Amino acid sequence: MPDRVTIRTWFIQEVLPLEGALMRYIHRNWRNPSEADDIRHEVYAKLISAAAEGLPRNTRGLVFTIAKNHMINLARRARIVSFDYVADLEAIDAASEEIAPDRHLSAREELARLREGLGRLPDRVQQVILLRSLEGLTRQETADRVGVSISSVEHDLVYGTRALIDFMMGGQGDFIRAAPSKVRRQGREP
User: Fold this and answer.
1) How confident is the model over 134-163, as a mean pLDDT?
2) 57 three-state secondary structure
3) Helix (H, G, I), strand (E, B) or coil at 98
4) Are the beta carbons of 47 and 11 closer than 8 angstroms?
5) Helix axis angle, 150-168 relative to 139-146, nearest 10°?
6) Closest C-alpha to 10, from 55, 49, 77, 68
7) Does the domain at residues 111-190 carry the CATH identifier 1.10.10.10?
8) pLDDT tens-digit map of 54-93
9) How many whole angstroms separate alpha carbon 52 and alpha carbon 57?
10) What distance lies between CA 27 and its chain's CA centroid?
């Protein structure tokens, strides 16, 4: 299994350069352009999880396969299934959906780590992540609820997601902070 530094280096060198192509792919294949950023973040989270098991030989292929599968799963979840078409709910084999005890324990540990990571974030960033990820609000709805601009919601979501990914990988939760703006770097802003 690769260590955190190896995964970070791989992510920066091989995944981030694909971001433009990934976003074009998502926009071309997803019906709601306002959800593209969220899909990208989910793809990145799945990539990091996969890389923790071992770095892929074909990063580009993995990025687009994960994106495609994630969009398919989102579309499936979004479909409303009428109960009229479900003949017998009791006939569903519940045993096939059981989680093995070791995976259940691992999932509990990951959830506890996620809660701890969320707790380390500033209150507004926590609120933005929870509204967008758990409640499924749009960027505009989240901005209205929190009382900030859409760009602030996007910034908080990016910062929070990156911090959570770092924390989940064993870091301190401060993986990549937003780079200073070009104006500030060039010394034009006090």
Assistant:
1) 88
2) coil
3) coil
4) yes
5) 100
6) 55
7) yes
8) 898 899 989 999 998 888 888 777 654 434 333 333 343 3
9) 14
10) 17
State pTM to two decimals: 0.45
Tokens of 136: 């499924």
Is 155's pLDDT higher than 70? Answer: yes
Sign of CA pseudo-dihedral 165, 169, 174, 179: negative
Distance CA 130, CA 125 (A): 9
Place of tokens 């059981």: 98
d(C-alpha 162, C-alpha 156), whole Å: 10
Residue 95 has pLDDT above 70, yes or no: no
The highest-level CATH class for domain 1-79 is mainly alpha
Tokens of 171: 């870091």
Identical fold, 1-79 and 111-190: no
Instruction: Please give the mean pLDDT across all residues of the chain.
Output: 76
Sequence-separated (6 or more) residues with CB below 8 Å from residue 38: 132, 133, 157
User: Per-domain residue ranges for the chain?
Assistant: 1-79, 111-190
Q: Are 125 and 150 in contact (CB under 8 A)?
A: no
